[in-house]
Design a protein that fits this description.
By secondary structure, the chain is an alpha/beta fold. The chain contains 26 helices and 14 strands. The strands form 3 sheets. Strands 5-13-12-6-11-7-10-9 form an 8-stranded mixed β-sheet, sandwiched between helices. A hairpin with a 5-residue loop joins strand 9 and strand 10. The chain is elongated, with a radius of gyration of 63 Å.
Amino acid sequence: MNAANTSHGSNPAQYQSMEHAVDWGHGGQDSQFNTPSIDFGAILAAVIRWRWLMLGSLLLALLGAAIYTFLATPLYRAEATLEIRQQRVQLLEGADVEAVAVRDPTFMETQFALLRSGSLAQRVARDTRLASNPALGLPDGLTREAREGAALIYIASGIKISQVGNSRLVNISFVGNDPTVAAAIANSYVQNFIRSDSDRRVATTASARALLSERVAAAKTSLEESERALVTYAQVHGIIEINPINTAAGSESSANGSLDATLLVATTGALSQAENERIAAQQVYEQARSAGVSRAALDSSAAQTMRTTLAQLQAEYAQQSQTYLDSYPAQQALRSRINEIQSELGRQEGQYLRSLRADSMAASARVSELRSRVESLSGRLTDTRNRSIDYNILQREVDTNRQLYDALLQRYKEIGVAGQIGSDLASPIDPAGAPSRPFSPNLFFNLILALGGGLVLGGGLVFLAYIMDDTIKSPEDVKQRLRLAALGAIPEANEGKAFVEASDDSQSPISEAYFSARAAIDFATSSGAPKSIAITSATAGEGKSSSALGLARSFAKNGKRVLIIDADLRRPTLTSQNGNGRTSDSERGLSILLTSDTAFETHVEQTIIENIWAIPSGPIPPSPTELLSSRKMVDVIRAAEAAFDLVIVDSPPVLGLADAPLIGGVCQALIFVVKAGGPRRKVVLGALNRLLPSGTNIIGALVTFVAQHRVGYYYSGVYQYLYVDSTGGKTGKGGRKLPILKG
């Protein structure tokens, strides 16, 4: 053992494996480098593996639903539709309550609460005489109170009140074991809800009339007192109103209705008009004085005549001046006539200016007089207003009291009639009819519900089983749970040909899987595939011997000379092809080679497979562990490495034996075989930890007995196709012989 450890102790992979010992002990996933993802292949594999659990859950749920459907009591549902309208409830005239109530979110909630109230249920129970109805199935001898209580419980358990969308329509449905009773209760709910509203409205009308009667009497007294106070105050202070008090039409205030106020308004208007006239007269006078002649003077008929005559004379004078001299008598006569007309025009203009000035002065005098009158009236009115403040307050109080009294009196007259002829709060839309068939139990619905429940239950049980199952089932589990390199996944073939024949088919999934594993082994070390590889497993029956043969065949097809050493000295595997049962003889085999000085070549046998030779186990020795730990075992492995391209050692299982760690320490590498769904993770980790002290270089793990669809999933990314195994065959199991030796 020491020599073996020394021979391969310098391999760096051994130290790497030793460093992973702690990881095997904990077995946790590296959350720092692995992102969580949904493994649909693992989910499908779990469902297929526990398919009977899933099917059992579905069948159990469907059977339970069918039994419940046929044993349950038939239930009938009757539905009635009711429309709820809002009422205008107002105690004062002009108060429109409906506009506010439409936006009140509590209105419909209040009506629903009334529909679900116990008092309405009692009215329905009495109206339908439900306490004495045989549909309740009450035993004889119960008291009246007990029967009524049972009837209320029956109604409460079957009634359902719901709103139709966002409308004011309400659906009232009742579910019971009798269709006639269900329809009667639903219709009775509608009728008694309307009747209860009418009863409440009548009671509300009586209370409102009594309240209004008291308010009318109080308002009348207040109105009389306020009118007396107003008249007394006006008499004491000498306030005279032009308009009488008329609260119905609305009276003016005392300041606006008094005589002084009226005169002030009229005088102010006259003052404004006189001021405008004065300004106009002043403007006319100033214009006439500055221009020398006014527009009015030019527009008068006399002035027009004289100016026309003057123009004619001036034209005639100018025309004759071309012929006669100015001293000519005719010319002098014309000149004299022109001067007379001009003098007359000047006189008329002066007289007109004087009249304009007189008009302006008269207008100013009128303005002064009216302004003095306004100031006098303003002073008197100010004094009157000071005395009329309390008067106005009293008059407003009279107006308010009169309006309140009139409104209360009118409402008092109307409320009695409104309570008798007011519209109902609700009205029936669709009455309930007796259903012709039960709505429950529904066999189809129950089966669909049971199917969904069975799927959920079965999925939960499968998930629970998957969580509790900590066996290695895939190469991903090898990487995550064992911290080993996954060399490949070997499928579980169908029953048929022997494994030797099945693995010889290059298009079978088994052969393809071992070719992939061979490629992974080629890259296991920096120098390629190791010269000697030990193959072992945690327990028996995991396919290690079959994997040894499969890997040997894959390397042999690649042109390498492969030697298989059957190192299981307790349960040999290799046997002859002719079926004589010979696994070894007394002269050849590993046990003879380790206990004698015979040559190595004499124990190597030819197999039926090209490029593959084998050393059988030989006779079973009394102490296999001593033989495997001897120096001779190291010499045998070294001789085999020198004679062949690859040496594959079929080792015994690890647990319970010391053989596998001894063989792993001698060989350059070791491949750990794990059966999919076989031993639990704790058992596998224990076997791996037993291999480490011997310096075993574990280059990876091989997962065997993997379902066909799982293998296709794992290798679809590499090959993009899946060979169909048409030859059959199964990987070797524990105890199965591999007939590859020539008889």
